[in-house]
Amino acid sequence: MRLESNKNTQRKQRTAEHLQYALIALIKEKGFHSVTVKNIVDYAKYNRSTFYIHYQDKYELAEDLLDTMLLGLEYSIQKSYQTKRIVDTSNLNEQSFSIISYIYENRNFFELIKYSDTLPDLHTKFPQTILKIYQEKFVFETIENKPVNMDFFTRYTAYGFYGLVSNWINSEFKQSQEAFIQDIIQLAQTHMATVRYIG
């Protein structure tokens, strides 16, 4: 019985992913507001009844897609800091930025920020999620413990990082992932002494 339940769960998840993929492709093709449920099911090769088993409308599908991807963004941070919770910025490396790897691996989704008629709330919730990660999962130490307003420092760093990431996405990832991470590390080393993971 449990095996059958697991199969049903996996099937539902797979169907939801297909519908989400269809929505992403259609937003890029015609804009979110022009997309209909019929467009989505035709693209995903499902019928409308299958869609309505999973979602009430395209807005619920869009919300589920956004929430799933941004939750994954939060979880991606844990990979970098499973073994070492305090890192001197001189020791930062590619593994310290699994968040960038996550964005690149899921670039099909994150490219949606390039569009004006895109997933509702994407342009606000994406930077807000990065800020939440910086506020809730990290404590930063300035170089030589220089006293600063740490709330400002965290916001400045989070939104600066978002700005660089969005520019990278808008450039169609012209810079390699490795080179982009190295530039981020060099910037971090100009104003941070250590990064402590508390998430």
Question: How much of the residues is beta strand, in percent?
Answer: 5-15%
Counting H and I runs of at least 4 residues, what is the number of helices?
9
Mean pLDDT equals 93
Residue share in helices? 55-70%
Low-confidence stretches: none
What characterizes the major β-sheet? 3 strands, antiparallel
Which radius of gyration do the C-alpha atoms yield? Answer: 19 Å
Shape: elongated
The assigned structural class equals mainly alpha
Strand order of the largest sheet: 1-3-2
Order of helices and strands: HHHHEHHHEHHE
For the termini, the CA-CA separation is 37 Å
The count of DSSP E runs of length 2 or more, i.e. the number of strands, is 3
